[in-house]
Amino acid sequence: MITVFGSINLDLVTRVAQLPRPGETVHGSDIAQYPGGKGANQALAARRAGADVRMVGAVGNDDFATQALTELRVAEVDLKAVEARGDTTGVAVITVDEAAENTIILSPGANLRCDATQIPAEALAADGTLMLQMEVSEQETFAAARTARAAGAHVILSLAPFQPLAREAFSDISMLLVNETEASDLARHYGIAETGHDEVVQALAGYLGVTVIATLGADGAVASESGGDVTRVSSPKIDPVDTTGAGDTFAGVLAAGLDTGEDLASAMRRAAVAGALACRKEGAQPSFPTRVEIEQTLSSA
Q: CA 143 → CA 63, 139, 292, 297, distances in Å?
């Protein structure tokens, strides 16, 4: 089973002709509201890909809480470890331009009040997977990682939003997920001089002693296990509408594949397809593909 410890938000999205520059006001579309949060996104993506998923997190005592949990409830994600803490649910204010690029402003709300003790003991078994991101307390995130790793669980961390962590922070992490910008920033932080995607990922994996996977947008993804040979997968060509949540889709579907025993290359291939499919619709969670849609795309490739 996959346990996701992380953020739960409501996304407020407006479309613009171009993203505003500092000090500039631009006209946007009517506001659309979608459930979001990197933790909730990954949980839903994994569940739609066929995995059994438990969500651990916090929402506020407000009307946004119900909306933020809507898609997770519909998908029958286990929400027993989601607690109401504080007044406000996390909110992300998102602008999306005509090229499907976005900017995001995050108000964390109750997300900063969730803690690792909410994770049920049975979630941290040797055959389990714990997924983490960086939208809740860093201290609680790595406390959860320590407990899970001690129990023998597989621990996957999405380093987003990016933070330049010390090398020692990854000692309880099995797999690190980054996008191409985060990979370059982390390499620069460690003084790694490599520049190509393959070389950066291989160098990071060797330096940290973990499996590192970097998503490359339309170019797919690349991985290295502890600095070993590079695994690369391509992404299907699509006309993007909104890239919000594509990385979370990749993460959730990757975890679902690994949880069912797929090898790394197969799980990455499935995740890359899912990430591309998630860019075809506006909003994060409403765009996440089902297992059937992923299989159909794979079979027609």
A: 30, 6, 36, 38
User: What residues contact 177, with CB distance under 8 A and at least 6 apart?
Assistant: 156, 157, 158, 159, 160, 213, 214, 215, 247, 250, 251, 254
Q: What is the pLDDT of residues 137-188, one digit of tens each?
A: 999 999 999 999 999 999 999 999 999 999 999 999 999 999 999 999 999 9
Q: Is-catalytic flag, 248?
A: yes
Neighbours of 99 (CB within 10 A): 10
Three-class secondary structure of residue 160 per DSSP: coil
C-alpha angle 142-145-151 in degrees, rounded to nearest 5: 150
Question: 236, 280, 267: which is closest to 49 by C-alpha?
Answer: 267
User: Dihedrals φ, ψ of 218, to 5°?
Assistant: -65, -15
The rounded percent of the chain whose pLDDT value lies above 70 is: 100
The tokens describing 75, both together, are: 């998908």
pLDDT single digits (tens) 90-140: 998 989 898 888 888 889 999 999 999 999 988 888 889 999 999 999 999
pLDDT greater than 90 at residue 195: no
Across-strand partners of 90? 9
Tokens of 27: 């006209």
**CA 129/CA 152 separation, integer angstroms:** 9
**Rounded distance, CA 51 to CA 70, Å?**
18
Secondary structure (H, E, C), 235-294: CCCCCCCCCCCHHHHHHHHHHHHHHCCCCHHHHHHHHHHHHHHHHHCCCCHHHCCCHHHH
From 11, 172, 248, 259, the catalytic residue: 248
Of 6, 74, 9, which Cα lies nearest the Cα of 43? 6
Residue 301: pLDDT band with limits 50, 70, 90: low
